[in-house]
Amino acid sequence: MEKRTPHCKLAVIKALIDAGKVRTTHTARTGADELGLGFSDMLT
């Protein structure tokens, strides 16, 4: 089932990223690496 409403406001997520208060899963980092993306690329 597709979710139509977000859990958090986008502005809150962006503020957390700007403050460096995000963590990624191993799977997310592996997938980004396979795409040639670094951690900073994942956040932009």
Description:
The chain has 44 residues and is mostly helical. It has one domain. The longest helix is centred in the N-terminal third of the chain and has 9 residues. The model has no long low-confidence stretch (mean pLDDT 89).
Chain-wise SSE layout:
Elements: H1 10-18, H2 26-34, H3 39-42
Number of strands: 0
User: How many independent structural domains?
Assistant: 1
Count the helices. How many? Answer: 3
What is the chain-wise order of helices and strands? HHH
Helix content: 40-55%
Structure described in brief:
With 44 residues, the protein is mainly α. It is built from three helices and no strands.
Features:
single chain, 44 residues, mainly alpha, 3 helices, 0% strand, MqsR_sf, MqsR_toxin
